[in-house]
Amino acid sequence: MSNGTSVATVVLNQFVKNKNIVLRVAKFSTRSGMSSENKSPLLERARNIVPHLDTDRHKGQAGRIGIVGGSLEYTGAPYFAAISALKVGADLVHVFCPDAAAQVIKSYSPELIVHPLLDSNNAIIQIEPWLERLHVLVIGPGLGRNRQIMQTVAELIKICRQLQKPLIIDADGLFLITQDISLVKDYYGVILTPNAIEFCRLFGKDRDQIMLSLGRLGAGVTVIEKGLNDRIYDSLTLEKYECPQGGSGRRCGGQGDLLAGSLATFYYWALESKQEISPAMVACFAASTLTKTCNKYAFKQKGRSMTCSDMIDQIHPVFDDLFEHKKD
What we know:
The protein has 328 residues and is of the alpha/beta class. 47% of the residues lie in helices and 12% in strands.
């Protein structure tokens, strides 16, 4: 997806191209994401969006991702999201954080480009020029609830809407959305990634009303509800996908950050492939599958002592087993 091509344009073109498929979809039907191990149609579609590692590609073509988050207390979350995006296969990842978090995040990895701008007096003026260069933004990991920073992030979301920038909103970014749902209403290309508590804040506890609540967000907003079975609500094709169970009983912190970061890379690839009627749905399925399988692999090695860093170490073997293009 070039800088001049919006997510809405890409998706709408594919929607028109595949309209006969869409017309055959039952309204808000429920589908299971995986029929048998490594043989799911969705998994095959996820493999198809992964770019080949051709020698004629240049830096940046596999994805330039932005992470907006971090705070004095929470420096691990933006790091986990950023390094996961990078290890899945993005070429460059920028982290926009408050000054107090910047040096700590930089110390975790020299691979990340860290901008200590989020709490500066002219944060919007300094961050806005970078937005055009980025393919997908993740807003929320470790963000905290500082009022000034929340106001800055709200303004960034409005600018991203004007730029038609693909956006993933996670963690405290979702808290901001519960305070002002208009920030994402009818925002084509937004993915929300709530856990169980965040999902209830957004849509209530009545499962029968969830689809109605989702519909109020407008077409083009996708939700992945994280849980034992991740559920993907696709407002474009009006379907709900039940992802397969996976992982382990170990629920260490940081897994949602791993999912958000990997989702950003998969989302860009799905949009760039220009072959998916619902790139957000396929990207959500890929990120869910990757995260749960990383948990499974890491738990097999570490057991109860497993942490998110152990899961991130498993991104390569999991990706190689599930998504990589194999030579005949």
